[in-house]
Amino acid sequence: MAEGRIMAEEIKKAEGRILVVEDEHIVAMGIKKMLKNLGYTVTGVASSGKDAISKAESTFPDVVLMDIMLKGDMDGVEAAKEIREKFDVPVVYLTAYSDSKILERAKKTEPFGYIVKPFDEKDLHSSIEVALHKHRKEKEKTE
């Protein structure tokens, strides 16, 4: 029984590398703390779309938590599209905005989740686990 739990923890650690993309520093630090409490490794925190792409390339995350509204000329939807295309990393959107235009743009990037702020650790945990599972199944089909 304990052996199964240990294996599950090892899988989580092996597949628990998260890149946080959030342009509000205090919010980003709160998310980072939640992720660490849940046992994930935070590979980095990016505050712009360009920074997110660069960090995704250099840190090899398993999941990207992406705020949709970012400062700069590239928003989270554009950054997520590029990250998915270049690196095949699943993206879970985090946003305070849930209007239909933004949701429609976000859906076109085939996200692995969409969390509306404010959220708690349980919301974050379940969304990440579903994204990891879905991405693992997708990869199995293509192998």
TrEMBL record:
<feature type="domain" description="Response regulatory">
    <location>
        <begin position="17"/>
        <end position="132"/>
    </location>
</feature>
<keyword id="KW-0597">Phosphoprotein</keyword>
<dbReference type="InterPro" id="IPR050595">
    <property type="entry name" value="Bact_response_regulator"/>
</dbReference>
<protein>
    <submittedName>
        <fullName>Response regulator receiver</fullName>
    </submittedName>
</protein>
<dbReference type="InterPro" id="IPR001789">
    <property type="entry name" value="Sig_transdc_resp-reg_receiver"/>
</dbReference>
<feature type="modified residue" description="4-aspartylphosphate">
    <location>
        <position position="67"/>
    </location>
</feature>
<dbReference type="Pfam" id="PF00072">
    <property type="entry name" value="Response_reg"/>
</dbReference>
<dbReference type="InterPro" id="IPR011006">
    <property type="entry name" value="CheY-like_superfamily"/>
</dbReference>
<dbReference type="GO" id="GO:0000160">
    <property type="term" value="P:phosphorelay signal transduction system"/>
</dbReference>
